[in-house]
Design goal:
132 residues; alpha+beta; five-stranded mixed beta sheet; three-stranded antiparallel beta sheet; 3 helices; globular
């Protein structure tokens, strides 16, 4: 009897700052999806949640996150959807804004042309204690 592997879901991720949308598999981080856009200059650091370069604000949608350095993402940040793109996988279509050090590169004017334990999250839009 052959074992079947679960199908990989792919979700639309919209970068609100540029209007770009890309597809990201639920097995890949949002940062890996951004890199797949093929745009030069998307800076990446450690890819492991320790440097803080890829900080984003999830505006809408569901995601699963892995452990992130508290030096770069506070508990309040995480509760309000401010997370590191290298440590987050999409669980639905979602939209985000770039707020970390990679903002300059992602939002430039020509922008248009084995899992660890994870925690599920809903977008923080309905939370009155999370500034938008």
């Amino acid at each position: 009897m052959a074992m079947s592997t679960p199908a990989t879901a792919r979700f639309a991720v919209r970068i609100e700052d540029t209007g770009e949308t890309y597809r990201c598999a639920d097995t890949r981080s949002l940062l890996e999806g951004m890199e797949a856009l093929g745009r030069k200059g998307i800076p990446v650091g450690c890819r492991n949640g320790g440097c803080g370069v890829c900080k984003v604000q999830i505006r809408d949608g569901r995601y699963a996150s892995r452990v992130m350095s508290r030096d770069h993402v506070s508990e309040e940040d995480e509760r309000c959807g401010r997370v590191l793109a290298c440590r987050v996988r999409p669980c639905s279509d979602l939209s985000l804004s770039v707020i970390g050090l990679m903002r300059k590169s992602v939002c430039r004017s020509d922008a248009g042309s084995g899992r660890a334990a994870e925690s599920p999250h809903e977008h923080p839009a309905a939370r009155p204690d999370c500034p938008r």
